[in-house]
Amino acid sequence: MSTTNPADTLNESEVVAEAEAALAGIEAMRAEIGKVIFGQEEVVENAIVAILSGGHALLVGVPGLAKTKLVETLGTVLGISAGRIQFTPDLMPSDILGSEVLEQSEDGRRSFRFVKGPIFTQLLMADEINRASPRTQSALLQAMQEYHVTFGGERHDLPAPFHVLATQNPLEQEGTYPLPEAQLDRFLLQIDVDYPSLEAERRILLETTGMSEQHASAVFTGDRLLELQKLVRRMPVPESVVTAILELVRSARPGTGHATTDAHVAWGPGPRASQALMLCSRARALYDGRFAPSIDDVKALAEPVLQHRMALTFAARAEGISVRDVISDIVNTLDRS
User: Which UniProt keywords are listed (predicted)?
Assistant: First the structure.
């Protein structure tokens, strides 16, 4: 049995036909990214899943792991405009959103004209986002949720599609401003970027230190990406997957009867986490060449969807327990149910 939105206009056979047409492009996209990004298959997969789902992602990893290169490559392969903002403590909201300049016409009349800032791009890399002040960080909140900004009382729509891929260094925390919970919740996924494998690092050494480097080519366009995002929302979801999503997210909230959560979690994820799991499970299935998500998709996405939407108690942190440990226990409980 499958669950679909009553407002969907395509039946399941039409969704399958559209998905089959999209698979060749997705496979070509993976091949193009593989020319530039070596290893890191899970990181690449989760970043693309976030974009296919129409959301934003937070990339967490130490410097030098090709986070910036990944964002640049995604912009090229997806055929969308990409921009980068280096977040620093002295960055102001107007440095992101834009500003008004006073102009004088030939007849002497003066008026203000809005000059768009770097946020007006389709794929924005917010580099080291936690180095900016809370005031500047909050400038992204409206854009990430509502896809427009308000300046001088006027609304300015952002280009479509619009995605933010932010990076954060987990090591150097001096002089940083931790992202508030409201902004963390705007990120569909938190993607942890680990060190490459031995074989991947060998390829990096051999292929990036010579006279020439491989370059990715465009596979999609912005309009095609929007079509794929609509397709993801039309994909049928089995009732068992819906049940698994609800059980997983609700088990991550204290006071719902899960022993590990009740003992160690101060506050858990809200309904936006369930929405993220539903969309990302569909997108992951499409990325893997399947026409409907499975419970395995939910399990695989549990950590990137939930870890930035939960907080442990002080006692749990003192005992050395991590959010990952709690999520792993919840997923294991899902296996036994």
Answer: ATP-binding, Nucleotide-binding
Mean pLDDT of the chain: 86
The structure tokens listed for 331 are 């997923």
Q: Specify the CATH class of 237-337 in words.
A: mainly alpha
- Tens of pLDDT, residue by residue over 271-328, are 999 999 999 999 999 999 888 899 999 999 999 999 999 988 898 888 888 899 999 9
pTM above 0.85, yes or no: yes
- Contact criterion met (CB below 8 Å) for 217 and 74: no
Question: How many degrees, rounded to 5, is the angle at CA 322 between CA 318 and CA 324?
Answer: 170
190/47 Cα distance (integer angstroms): 9
**Are the CB atoms for 182 and 141 separated by under 8 Å?**
yes
Sequence spans of domains, the chain = 11-234, 237-337
Task: Look at residues 158, 161, 197, 25 and name the one whose alpha carbon lies nearest to residue 80.
Answer: 161
In whole angstroms, give the CA distance from residue 228 to residue 119.
Answer: 23
User: What span, in angstroms and rounded, lies between the C-alpha atoms of 232 and 226?
Assistant: 10
3-state secondary structure of 270: coil
Q: Which residue has the tokens 């932010």?
A: 166
Query: Quick one: residue 39, left, alpha or beta (phi over 0 = left, psi -120 to 50 = alpha)?
Result: left
Q: In angstroms, rounded to a whole number, what is the distance separating the alpha carbons of residues 19 and 150?
A: 37
Residue of 49, 60, 74, 67 lying closest to 276 (CA atoms): 49
d(CA 90, CA 131): 9
In angstroms, the CA 19 to CA 26 distance is 10
Q: Which CATH number is correct for 11-234, 3.30.365.10, 3.40.50.720, 3.30.70.260, 3.40.50.300? A: 3.40.50.300
Residue-wise burial string across 242-281, b where 16 or more C-beta atoms lie within 10 A, e elsewhere: bebbebbbbbbbbeeebebbeebbeebbeeebbbbbbbbb
DSSP string covering 275-307, please?
HHHHHHHHHHHHHTT-SS--HHHHHHHHHHHHG
Contact indicator for 69, 37 with CB cutoff of 8 Å = yes
Angle at 239 between CA 234 and CA 244, to 5 degrees: 105
